[in-house]
Amino acid sequence: MTVDVRQGLEKLAVRLGGAGARLAEAQRLSSGASMETWAFAIEGAGGLEKLILRRRSAPFDPETARSIPLATEAALIVACGANGARAPGVRHVCDEADGLGEAYVMVAVEGETLGRRIVSDPRFDAVRGKLARQCGEALAPIHATPPPPELNLKHSDAAGELARYEEAYRASGAERPILELAFQYLKARVPPPVDPILLHGDFRNGNIMFHPQMGVAAVLDWELAHIGDPAEDMGWICTNSWRFGRPDRPVGGFGDYADLLAGYEAAGGRPIELARVRFWQMLGSLRWGVMCLGMYLSWSSGVSTSVERPMIVRRVSETEADLVVLLEQGL
Amino acid sequence: MITHPRTEELARAVAGWIDEVRPGLDPRNAFLARVAVNVLGVIGRELTQGPAAEASAVEGMAAVLGRAGSFADLNAELCERIRAGELTVETSGLLAVLTAMANDQLAIDQPNYRPEGTPAPGA
Fold it and tell me: Which of A86, A107, A128 is where one domain is finished?
């Protein structure tokens, strides 16, 4: 069933803005494989209200999906926001009456999400040095939020993640000696277990709204939230694939490990050893490599026909080039 | 192979045409067109750099494994023996060979990617 999003937004304008309100503007921002984002504004009695619609554009299978339903994502954002996290304000969770499928509406946040701009655009020169610490500060309240039990979030730990990605790697049929070596290396160095806590699950440069003066404005894209090791979120933002051409600045291409860890502790996070972050960072490169490999099957089987799919599989070699250096440096 | 034009030149010609029409496309197709240009870049580099990269990989893997063979054959055995724990990061020469293979492949797939350990630009 195709959904006319613009028509849905017109209806939504009346529902959210009250009598006389109308849709002032609507623009599709991005379309991922399964998710769409729309920027829109409602003009009503109270003036212009700028909003963001996030909706699923492909069918969702809760059994096989790693991601969570959008209503769960919205509930999680509300819970973390109430606990002091920089999360966007949830304005409305869509229901059947809206005719928009699985979707929710957030209050628009001003800033930039494009990783490369945050790393290299002069507009961010003044604030860039503060971002790693702010990212640590931003993670602490998320990790301190008790996961609402009714949301049934998935659990994972390092050994489990390695097993899951190794299975996905084997299923791909590819033979990549560097990935094989990284699996063996990491399996022999799984850190001791910690008390599992709520994780954002996709905390990296590209999923954070940064303001050129203020820095971290909002943490976005919560669909991979789960329960696990806090160092997982830290390692992922340090994975070189998300440093956008600045490998010399390990946190997101903008900052240093020490600032990330210090910000986390200063905001009340339980101290995390750098070695543990580096383990998850290396697992992050391996994870991204396996995720890219997985896109080959979705293209070769005909599920996805976009030229983007086979090309992204060629990003596996970036993770291999990163992994050999990490293997050489050692954990 | 004929030289007028070489295959990589054909790929470059198509990429040039896509770049010409790209400004007139809607945002989604403009993005996909840029991806397509990158694909043609990979094809061109694989044609010109691929044979040397493969020969060098075969030589490196043969040295580690102590026997001759084709790329697919040696690559499969390398994977198997790493998985079995017979070859590890401690194995003399293994990481050097894997590093050379990774960098050669990266030079084909994404020559502008800056791997872990690359110093700051201009440093």
Answer: A107
Q: How confident is the model at residue A1 (pLDDT cuts 50, 70, 90)?
A: low
Asked, for residue A115, whether it belongs to a domain, the answer is no
Query: Which chain B residues contact residue A29 at CB under 8 A?
Result: none
Question: According to the model, what pLDDT value does residue A32 have?
Answer: 64
User: Is the Cα torsion angle A156, A158, A160, A161 positive or negative in sign?
Assistant: positive
A321 with B89: Cβ contact below 8 A? no
Residues A18 and A84 in one domain: yes
Q: How confident is the model at residue A212 (pLDDT cuts 50, 70, 90)?
A: very high
Nearest to A183 by CA among A203, A200, A195, A168: A168
Query: Furthest-apart CA pair in chain A: how many Å?
Result: 65
Q: How far is B88 from chain A (nearest CA, A)?
A: 7
Q: Same structural domain for residues A55 and A137? A: no
Predicted local distance difference test score (pLDDT) of residue A324: 98
Residues 303 through 322 of chain A touching chain B, CB cutoff 8 Å: 306-308, 310-311, 314-315, 317-318, 320-322
Amino acid sitting at position A110: E
A256 touches chain B (CB under 8 A): no
* Each residue's pLDDT tens digit, A50-95: 999 999 987 776 666 778 999 999 999 999 999 999 999 999 999 9
| CA distances from residue A64 to A67, A69, A156 in whole angstroms, order as listed | 9, 12, 15
The span from the first CA to the last CA of chain B, in angstroms, equals 43
B36 touches chain A (CB under 8 A): yes
Residue A186, pLDDT > 90, answer: yes
B31 chain-A contacts, CB cut-off 8 A: 308
Q: Confirm if A185 and B94 have CB atoms less than 8 A apart.
A: no
**pLDDT tens digits, A256-306:** 999 999 999 999 999 999 999 999 999 999 999 999 999 898 888 888 888
Alpha-helical runs (H) found in chain B:
7-21, 27-65, 71-83, 94-109
Q: Do A107 and A89 touch, CB atoms closer than 8 A?
A: yes
Position with higher pLDDT, A214 vs A1: A214
Q: State the smallest CA–CA distance between residue B84 and chain A in angstroms.
A: 9
pLDDT tens readout for residues B29-81: 999 999 999 999 999 999 999 999 999 999 999 999 999 999 999 999 999 99
Structural domain of residue A177, as residue ranges? 120-329
Q: Does B92 touch chain A (CB under 8 A)?
A: no
Say if A32 is an interface residue toward chain B (CB within 8 Å). Answer: no
Distance (Å) of CA A211 to CA A64, A105, A215, B95: 36, 21, 5, 42
